[in-house]
Design a protein that fits this description.
about 190 residues; alpha+beta; Aminopeptidase; two-stranded antiparallel ribbon; 3 helices; about 20% helix; binds coenzyme A
Length: about 190
């Protein structure tokens, strides 16, 4: 009898054969993180991206902003069921009318395919707009400035943060109408899945 051994990788509770791309379902929801599992998964994703991958922080990237911020998550859906948090961003009001977005992160194998980063930025700014934002800013890693420019953001000032080049950017709120129903899951099909 012949035996075939397959190396398996485990990523955030999902097992898939080593060397093969994991199954990527084409439907996602973008929503405020309301359940405990969503909040736990969003912290794990942030750790993978900002600590393990980018080495911006060692061990944990949580800070005081997390005490007041609203995390937003991109969740993939399999057969109509929420499956996994694959993207996140957080929003927080720092003074009346002034909001910041931060910790935008997409799971590596979901980047540049599904529009999730753009979708999270849209959800973040439209949600803050509905909550009274008159200005929405973010300290953007310099390499991502072109990504934000395409989404109607303008660069205000270059600065170094966490030992890396960043640029303070501002969203054009006219491009982000207030999203009043902030509890709803905005489900969308991948724009590039066929
Ligand atoms: C930056 C990031 C959030 C983008 O999310 P994403 O889901 O891959 O982006 P989208 O699918 O919405 O958009 C992809 C488009 O933006 C472009 N894009 C992505 N990153 C870019 C960058 N740094 N500069 C210019 N364009 C960029 C892609 O080429 C693609 O263009 P296309 O639509 O013409 O094909 C994601 O790459 C990420 O999580 N990176 C690691 C963490 C990080 O850097 N966070 C941002 C901190 S400021």
């Amino acid at each position: 009898m012949r035996r075939v051994f397959v190396a398996l990788r485990v990523r955030d509770g999902v097992i898939f054969p080593h060397g093969l791309a994991p199954f990527v379902p084409p439907q996602f929801g973008i929503k405020l993180a309301s359940d405990g599992w969503e909040r736990d998964a969003h912290f794990r994703l942030r750790r993978r991206v900002f600590c393990d991958e980018q080495r911006l922080f060692s061990g944990d990237d949580r800070d005081d902003v997390d005490d007041v911020a609203s995390p937003i998550v991109a969740v993939d859906y399999v057969m109509g069921m929420a499956h996994r948090v694959v993207g996140t961003v957080r929003i927080a009001e720092t003074s009346p009318g002034l909001w910041y977005g931060s910790r935008l992160a997409i799971e590596a194998e979901y980047r540049n395919v599904y529009g999730l980063g753009s979708g999270l930025v849209f959800r973040a700014v439209t949600t803050a707009h509905a909550r009274g934002a008159r200005t929405f800013l973010a300290n953007v890693q310099r390499a991502n400035v072109p990504f934000f420019r395409r989404l109607a953001w303008e660069a205000l000032e270059d600065r170094d943060l966490f030992g890396r080049p960043h640029t303070l950017m501002r969203a054009d709120l006219a491009a982000y109408p207030p999203a009043l129903d902030d509890a709803a899951v905005a489900l969308f099909d991948s724009r590039r899945a066929s």
